[in-house]
């Protein structure tokens, strides 16, 4: 079928129309291009399609740098020029705000994080007759492919792939499937290994030798497919990550912003969203505080009441704040089951929340009805952002002061946003 691509969809696919006028989703096609596509199965309200040929390429089309592009499920738009990626991601945030009821809000497009800057990676592992396969999931599949290069993750993480492959080949605890989460901390790679078999004393010896050979201070382990708390398989030294000058000891697999550049952009946008004038001892409430990525820079501007539901993260934050003498009161609280209520918000100069991917629907509804004067919402999901901010658009007096798009997921379809809401004219 010969079609013209009309737009770029949320997943990075080109969108055209089939003969019945239904959406046709064509991966790797760009707006304005005339392409030959092979229609396939139903997808949502339209059909999926395979790109056969590009007859009239877009001026924004570039050569993808990675040989795995198209096979790897991580990157969606390596074939699109950086400026156009930035514009597309900003437009996605603007569209989410429009769906919420805040129309014609200008969205500042941020520069993408540079190549090879991602400090987190979660590799899938399979034992196969030909050896160990380790890498990211293939596009549209739950199975990994053998990764040879990557232009997204930091080189120190990528350098672990081949040594991991060799070590896992002789690890009895890996029967068929597993995974390896790597966080690159200030102290080096922090590895959380998950296998489908138990660790024997021999396995632990192998992991300890691997940690020493590769300069890995800590290797944690748990059973693949379970929610078991990771146990220490090997610890050769301390682990720490510095957040705005404060050393924090994270748990294995702890959440970090994907890149240092993305973290800095989010922190800057949040601080810019605080009121220009605050009382002498301002009180700032932070929800879903994690390890303290936003907590510690906020504490420079006021007294922070930081709430976090994950026990390990809440404990790490409280400990780090205590050692640093920061103006932070860290509280463990399940914010999904126990959102903050209006009386708890009274007197706060601002509230900052960075919820998980699903958003914070109940908390947003409470905030919109409260008397708090300012809310700074950090979102990694445009759909959740549109839903949660809809309650603010329907409540009297709220307006958006500033919206910033942050792109720390290079060449992917993901985009983050920092939106500052305030009351008044």
From TrEMBL:
GO MF terms held by the record: methyltransferase activity
| Highest taxon, organism lineage | Bacteria
> PANTHER family annotated for this entry?
23S RRNA (URACIL(1939)-C(5))-METHYLTRANSFERASE RLMD, RNA M5U METHYLTRANSFERASE
Which species is the source of this protein?
A: Pararoseomonas baculiformis
What is this protein's name? Class I SAM-dependent RNA methyltransferase
Key words, A-Z: 4Fe-4S, Iron, Iron-sulfur, Metal-binding, Methyltransferase, S-adenosyl-L-methionine, Transferase
Q: Where is the TRAM domain?
A: 1-53
The record's family statement is: Belongs to the class I-like SAM-binding methyltransferase superfamily. RNA M5U methyltransferase family.
Q: Which GO terms describe its biological process?
A: methylation
Keyword Iron-sulfur among record annotations: yes
Q: Which InterPro entries match?
A: NA-bd_OB-fold, SAM-dependent_MTases_sf, TRAM_dom, U5_MeTrfase_fam
In this protein, the active site sits at: 380 (nucleophile)
Q: Which residues bind S-adenosyl-L-methionine?
A: 257, 308, 354
One Pfam family this sequence matches: TRAM
Task: Supply the source organism's classification.
Answer: Bacteria, Pseudomonadati, Pseudomonadota, Alphaproteobacteria, Acetobacterales
